[in-house]
Amino acid sequence: MINRRTLAKSVGAALAVPATATATASADADTARRRYLVRGGAVVTMDPALGVLPRADVLIDDGEIVGVGVGPGLSARGARVVDATDMIVMPGLVNTHFHMWSSLGRNFVADGFPYFAAKRATSTLYDPQDVYRSVLLGLADLANAGVTTVHNWSNNTRSLAHAEAELRAHRDGLLRARFSYGHVDQMPRDVPMDFTGIDRVRQRYFAHGSAFDGLVHLGVCVRGLSQSDEPAFFADMDATLSRGLPVAIHAGQSPPRIVDAADYERRGWLGPKTLLTHYVTALDSDMEVMARTGTPLSWSPHSEFRLGAAGDPRDALLRFRRAGVPVSLSSDATSIAPSDMFEAMRVAWTTGIPWQGTPSAGLPEVGFRDVLTMATLNGARALGLGDVTGSLTAGKRADVVLVRTADVNLAPGGLLETTLVQAVTPANVDTVFSDGRIVKRGGKLVGYDVERIVREAKASSLRIRTTAGGILTPPA
After folding, report:
1. What's the whole-model pTM score?
2. Which of 433, 375, 413 is nearest to 42 (CA)?
3. How far is CA 255 from CA 117, 130, 303, 308, 475, in A?
4. Bridge pairing between strands 52-61 and 80-83
5. Pairing relation of β-strands 216-222 and 176-181?
6. In angstroms, rounded to a whole number, what is the distance separating the alpha carbons of residues 150 and 160?
């Protein structure tokens, strides 16, 4: 007879299988780490010492960027050459706030049935199989769009089995990630989070700091005062920080202002390991505290405008930048925005301008390089991965994206950083290396069995919609 302990051990053993053994890859996949020379592309390195190179090569070996250079300096001996002619080569993008458990619910919202109503109607209906399918769908979607690092803000971790299902998806998903174990959606406000599952997951999978070939590390996302009473929130924070884990907090898009940065600083809560998101309600004094303590912000451009009711989000973004707060970009949930960081950059750039007659008047506008930094280096640093990814720098891991510039929506070419922000869509992403493994090649996802992923996501979506009923009831 299989008891809970035996089941947990067998689940853990299954999760321990290396990512290269995933059964979710397409039939023609080759996801081994090899020696590659990415030759002859226009390279946007995001490395301040290297800048933009009109034509250069990138050498990758066993998952590491060995060199970035011009001319014959990089040896192709033993390397598979990847022709990057007419392509822009750039670092993999970073999404610092994505509720991946609900990826398959991207189209559950409707007029008169907005995000929070849809979440309330469905969040209790996801079983572990559903969240596995949802997270894997989200990971494949990210890879398709050139995102190689994601913060899985798991704010509906209903049980240990749900958490392990999400981790199984990360094992199969081949991308770099922080998995932030969170609360059970719709749990009572006065009840603290149960850290039993967090401790078990940490012991089983993260005893050495990371899991799945070092691609995934552990964090915690707490509810904050928007979804918990003060004593429960304080207990959640104390439990997280006493374990030395990085913490993520929703800081609010609408009044009242629920985060007092000076108070958080006095409590020892702020710093590089604390990630705040939204915070449209922040005062200038809050921003100054965040900048002084090195506390990063995750900014979700679509979400700040659609769900915010605290004034003009553009003003808040410009003031965060003036204060020197490290800003990264994110998508929030798929029912609010696509997980496409090219679009997030475009929206941040488009809206990042000062208005006359507002507090933003006279502040510097957001530029192309600014949003590229937010979507790469700043995102990596926000997740504690600044030495690992975020730029094409020798010694960092090979998270590399190739974008075709001969496609009709990018032709006839032009300034490289402008092109990446203004024009690129996931359809232009030709090749994606994640930690030196090719997961997309020739515009096709090769690291994933897309047909299976979509089929299984549809099955879970159909069951959840049928059970939820009402406006979500599928057509007969």
Report:
1. 0.94
2. 413
3. 19, 34, 15, 9, 39
4. unpaired
5. parallel
6. 21
